[in-house]
Design goal:
With 117 residues, this protein is of the alpha+beta class. 21% of the residues lie in helices and 26% in strands. It is built from 3 helices and 5 strands, in the order H-E-E-H-E-E-E-H.
């Protein structure tokens, strides 16, 4: 059974984080049959011109979705930004600066204790 509000409009939320600790959220009311691409175009394009790329990665509730995906009532649309650093390289660099004796299982946690215990 359809809810009365979903018969006329879909209510969706578009979320984008342009930088760490900055979250942009906009709630939209769209016509039934609206696609993910239409929601993104209606919400953030005027505020974030860098999102006009064809390489834009988007998802719904944490799962990657195509621009033609039909939306449902109360969907959360997420716009993913590109990684600036490969996570494997960043981890190697952190490990190199912290040293083998101060990171993770290799750290000595008590005086006289062995690393890893």
């Amino acid at each position: 059974m359809a809810r009365p509000e979903s018969a006329n409009h879909l209510q969706v939320e578009v979320v984008y984080a342009p930088a760490p600790r900055q979250v942009y959220t906009r709630t939209l009311e769209l016509d039934p049959g609206a696609t993910l691409h239409e929601a993104v175009m209606a919400s953030v394009m005027q505020d974030f011109p860098e999102l006009r790329s064809d390489q834009l990665r988007t998802g719904i509730w944490g799962k990657e979705a195509s621009p033609g995906q039909l939306l449902r009532h109360h969907d959360r649309i997420e716009i993913y930004r590109a990684l600036r650093v490969d996570p494997k390289i960043a981890r190697r660099e952190r490990f190199r600066t912290q040293g083998a004796k101060t990171a993770g299982l290799f750290a000595k946690t008590r005086v006289g204790g062995k690393a890893g215990y």
